[in-house]
Amino acid sequence: MNGSLIVVGLGPGDEALITPEVSAALAGATDVLGYAVYTARVTRRPGLTVHPSDNREELARARRAIMLAAEGRHVVVVSSGDPGVFAMASAIFEALEQMPGHLELDIRILPGITAMLAAAARAGAPLGHDFCAINLSDNLKPWELVEHRLRHAARGDFAMAFYNPRSKGRPHQFARVLEILREECEPARLVTFARAVRTPEESIVTVSLGETREEMADMRTLVIVGNSATRRVGRFVYSPRSAFTGVAE
Ligand code: SAH
């Protein structure tokens, strides 16, 4: 029995942003596993078993996916956006490390369009120069590390994309993030709040750092902080490809 395990990204929301190879993997699946909000996006059909689970159960889900594939099933694990960005691909490998008997399984990771790229495209090109992505959740790392990386990214003049910026369980941390940014960056620094990008509830708002308020972000928001050269042109925001104005490319 030759089972398979394919880890896919469903993109930010719009079906048009699901890649053809991800659609083909879903069409060939016997089992789909994932956080219930994401499995809800998968079309039901005869022959397909959908296994929704809670979003805190990533490792258990990963183990179950590996076991099902080992039994000969064609398993697809779904994440939103890209599966390698703060998502299931790492959880699968973490589980696999503890299950070395399954290292020879047919495992593939199929990329998707991550929220950061969908958000940047809506705003213009704020990530057109060097940038970094930071997950602001301290579920899986200490909060001190979040602050440390944030401060150093700001000092390095990287543009930044923040995932999981603010949840009900830790409402004050995003206020602290804005405080650190105000210490490290000038008040005119452009900050884009991209909420529910590529869904019917989409909203994209760009303000200066001085105008930011913590309520502008929630868990459906991707926040992009520009670098010191990021600027507006008409309704767009972009980071020039050279960070030094006047330097030839
Ligand atoms: N693997 C996903 C990220 C999972 S972490 C990806 O590559 O996009 C979940 C976080 O992603 C959310 O808290 C939010 O910050 C961001 N996110 C996911 N989908 C989004 C969307 N449609 N619009 C804005 N942000 C989104």
Helix content: 25-40%
Q: Averaging pLDDT over every residue, what do you get? A: 95
Task: Determine the strand fraction and express it as a percent band.
Answer: 15-25%
Q: Determine the CATH topology of the largest domain.
A: Methyltransferase, Cobalt-precorrin-4 Transmethylase, Domain 2
Highest-level CATH class of the largest domain: Alpha Beta
How many discrete domains? 2
Order of helices and strands: EHEHEHEHEHEEHEHEEEEE
Number of strands: 13
Cα-to-Cα separation, first versus last residue: 55 Å
Q: Over the alpha carbons, how many angstroms does the gyration radius reach?
A: 20 Å
Q: Widest sheet: strand order?
A: 3-2-4-1-5
Number of helices: 7
Structural class: alpha/beta
Shape: elongated
Bound molecules: S-adenosyl-L-homocysteine
Low-confidence stretches: none
* CATH architecture descriptor text of the largest domain: 2-Layer Sandwich
Query: CATH superfamily membership of the largest domain, which one?
Result: Tetrapyrrole methylase, C-terminal domain
